[in-house]
Design goal:
Layout: H1 3-20, E1 27-30, E2 35-38, E3 48-49, H2 60-72, E4 79-82, H3 87-95, E5 99-110, E6 125-128, H4 132-146, H5 150-155, H6 161-166, E7 169-176, E8 179-189, E9 192-200, H7 209-223, E10 228-232, H8 236-245, E11 248-257
Helix pairs in contact: 2-3
């Protein structure tokens, strides 16, 4: 794995761990051979293995079976992310009845000499989430865009924006025509900013708003000392948008469910 690949992997993992570490219904477990989250909630967001490496002490098929059993015993799905093409791990996942459900690009962008350029979308305003009304609007847009039940939306959005900001987590809204129309979350750690939860309300899509609010979040992170930006693009359309901003594809992230 290259240095860039490792940066993307570690910061995506750190993003999940940071957001979920204070959630009462989620347990974050980190060892020398894996990073994973588990919960009695049924979403893959909170039941996920993200950084498995065979220990060398047992057969990978048996190791993965033991890990998967901690989820299966509770009747919840296990989502398993891989960041490198590893035939041994892939074969062990298949042997344990895991199915590959997605393959997304992990993308990276240097902010060392980056200069912010306004998107030029007429009438677009930006706000960092601070008030209860803004929080409610943020959660609503996340919910309708990703089709999440309310309980998961609350896990992924701020309980206290002041505490979140101290942990490097910032949530932003875009407004147009007086209405909240787009969201983005940034997590800044160790000079690297991860971009998450980019959504746009249906009537306002294909107007450059997602690109604009992502660009704004990058501006704020850059002003706070970010030197690199990373993200996981969830669709070819999203990857195309991020390439326009200067991101490049560095790694393929496979997700399995079992």
């Amino acid at each position: 794995m290259s240095h860039s690949d490792e940066i993307i992997k570690q910061n995506l993992i750190l993003g999940f761990e940071t957001v979920l570490s204070y959630a009462l219904d989620v347990l974050v477990i980190k060892t020398d051979t894996l990073s994973r989250m588990e919960s009695n909630l049924t979403s893959g967001i909170v039941n996920r293995v993200m950084d498995y490496k065979p220990s060398g002490k047992a057969d990978p098929v048996a190791e993965i079976q033991a890990i998967a059993s901690t989820y299966r015993k509770r009747g919840v799905p296990c989502f398993w992310s891989t960041f490198v093409e590893d035939e041994v791990t892939e074969a062990a996942l298949t042997a344990n009845k895991f199915e590959k459900v997605s393959l997304d690009p992990g993308m990276l962008m240097s902010l060392e000499s980056w200069v912010y350029e306004d998107s030029g979308v007429p009438g677009l305003e930006y706000r960092e989430v601070r008030t209860q009304d803004e929080l409610d609007a943020f959660r609503h847009l996340i919910q309708i865009s990703f089709g999440m039940p309310d309980i998961y939306v609350k896990l992924l959005s701020p309980l206290d924006t002041h505490i979140e900001a101290k942990r490097g987590i910032h949530h932003y809204l875009s407004y147009m025509d007086g209405q909240p129309v787009a969201t983005v979350t940034s997590i800044l750690k160790n000079g690297v900013v991860g971009i998450y939860s980019v959504t746009t309300a249906e009537p306002y899509r294909r107007k450059g708003i997602a690109e604009a609010i992502t660009n704004y979040a990058l501006r704020e992170a850059h002003a706070s000392g970010a030197k690199l930006a990373i993200l996981q693009a969830g669709s070819p359309g999203a990857a195309s948008l991020y390439r326009k901003l200067g991101f490049r594809e560095e790694i393929s992230i496979a997700t399995y469910v079992g």
